[in-house]
Amino acid sequence: MLKGIPSILSPDLMKTLMEMGHGDEIVLADGNFPSASNAKRIIRCDGHGIRELLEAIMQFLPLDTYVDRPVAVMEVVPGDPFEPMIWKDYETIIGSSVSIEYVERFAFYERAKEAFAIVATSEKELYANIILKKGVIG
Question: Is 109 a catalytic residue?
Fold first, then answer.
């Protein structure tokens, strides 16, 4: 254990965040996301939801300020009436000044395949998947 690091952040997750470079992306995937079949690197965070992981990660991960939208979520499939309330939580956690990109489902899968890592969670809310693009420490 170390002081000041939330216990929800496993050693593997902290190591991954530290190994990422400027522009690398990490996916926080909900329980329905095909994490294992899309990941170059997979980090298991079973039993945890994305909200609490995002809160912990954002204490350490700078978002990329050199792109218009350093955060992306999977957009709702056309015709699906579901409204993801979790997105409001994301805005609160990351800050309302950060623009969020909405990515079509299959384009999101393709982007996730190129991500530095996918964090597989037990998040139950639909459309909870989120991509974070790492920035630099200024």
Answer: yes
